[in-house]
TrEMBL record:
Entry keyword Manganese: no
Record carries keyword Metal-binding: yes
Swiss-Prot/TrEMBL keywords: Metal-binding
SUPFAM superfamilies, per the entry: DinB/YfiT-like putative metalloenzymes (SSF109854)
Gene3D superfamilies in alphabetical order: dinb family like domain
PANTHER family reported in the protein's UniProt record: PROTEIN DINB, SLR1116 PROTEIN
Protein name: DinB family protein
Pfam families: DinB (PF05163)
Amino acid sequence: MSFNPYTQLIDVKRWADRGLYDTVRQNLPRLTSEDRWIMLRILDHIHAVDRIFQHHLLGLPHTFKAARSETMPELPALAQSTQEVDEWYSFYVRSLSDDDFLQPVEFTFTSGKQARMTRGEILLHVCMHGNYHRGNAGALLQMRGMTPSRDSITDYIEEAA
């Protein structure tokens, strides 16, 4: 298979998610209970969307009624599940042919609205959505005087070198 940007985007997402969870684990005791709740809500939302779109890619139904869990998971369980789903995306993106990225997928949003996106668009959405909300988490950490994890593609490339 030839190089495609989706593989690198998923690799950066997996790396950045891992870095964020490491940073949150180290700093969680320093956050207020309200900030901890906000942080977990951000992490859960990223993960819920990842799982929802994983199901769409597989053509399987999911149980989410919204883009978050009905019950807030604890950080260790959320971190473990995020790592597993990130690994799935890494394997999945590498299993696709170039033509597969253009294949349309029909699904239903949690709002009930019907939708259609290509596999590539779904992967791009998952990566961009996670990036946006990791920025929210990083901003919360910075507001409380903590250093967020590195999460840009240039950071990833620099660290890999």
